[in-house]
Design brief:
By secondary structure, this protein is mainly alpha-helical. The protein has a single domain (10-240), classed as Heme oxygenase-like (Heme Oxygenase, Chain A), CATH 1.20.910.10. The chain is built from 12 helices and no strands. It has helices at 10-26, 30-37, 42-69, 72-87, 97-104, 112-117, 122-135, 140-152, 164-176, 184-196, 198-207, 213-240. The longest helix has 28 residues, at 42-69. It is globular.
Length: 244
């Protein structure tokens, strides 16, 4: 589905332009620039991967809350989105994304026990609680958009130069010598989040006539990306504690 609206719908076109600008602005923020330019070693890669695994599980919780508040047609869209994450894709022979991450992480010396036993850091916990609060309060359009924000900013159709999964995958390749093609989870997300990000516009088109719909969706994007910048900054601090 192309990221366009009809010329007869200037309000939706404005929403698309603003969303694209906000998504790209994430990568110009100090937090994103820092984490994407920080030299990686195995210790830093492990911190990044293990703390982000808690974040990934939290995304499943957030989508579940948003789904609970949403109307039936949107519940179905979220169900299809989350099937990839929770069950994988049988047609393509891809397992669930958490399992992909565990398998990929053997390349940096991690095992399943590390994912099970490594606790959240305090900064991780604070951000994940904030995400849960955002998506479980307020109007459903804002909640769903707040969840979809992180799919959009990970999509190469919305973001110039590729999303976070692709960019960090290339950093792992450059600094640690792990070919991008061997990074099972990063490669999968770089591909499927293009499709997942289409959900934002499907919802906007279907529900834009609801009172204040696009404004609520924009506010969900803004607040979600604010939290994401804070999270990236804290994650960079955690990584920076490991010697370069």
């Amino acid at each position: 589905m192309p990221i366009t609206a009809t010329k007869a719908d200037p309000e939706l076109e404005h929403f698309i332009r603003e969303t694209r600008a906000l998504a790209n602005a994430q990568y110009a923020s100090p937090q994103y620039r820092r984490i994407l330019s920080m030299p990686l070693n195995m210790a830093r890669a492990r911190v990044y991967t293990l703390q982000k695994s808690h974040w990934n599980i939290n995304r499943r919780d957030c989508w579940a809350f948003a789904q609970g508040h949403a109307p039936m047609d949107v519940k179905k869209l979220i169900w299809l989105h989350e099937e990839d994450e929770l069950a994988g894709n049988k047609e393509r022979g891809v397992e669930d994304h958490y399992s992909l991450q565990v398998r990929q992480s053997s390349e940096i010396g991690l095992a399943a026990a590390d994912f099970r036993d490594t606790p959240m850091r305090e900064g991780t916990r604070m951000c994940l609680y904030a995400y849960l609060h955002l998506v479980n309060t307020g109007p459903w359009l804002k909640s769903v958009s707040a969840c979809a924000a992180l799919e959009v900013s990970n999509s190469s159709e919305w973001v110039d130069g590729g999303g976070m999964s692709y960019r960090m995958g290339k950093r792992f390749e450059k600094d640690l010598g792990i070919p991008f093609e061997k990074q099972l989870n990063a490669r999968e997300h770089a591909e499927v989040d293009v499709e997942h990000a289409h959900m934002l516009l499907q919802i906007a088109r279907a529900h834009r006539d609801a009172p204040g719909a696009l404004a609520l969706m924009t506010q969900g994007l803004v607040e979600s990306w604010e939290m994401d910048r804070v999270w990236k900054g804290l994650l960079a601090d955690m990584m920076d504690e490991a010697p370069a």
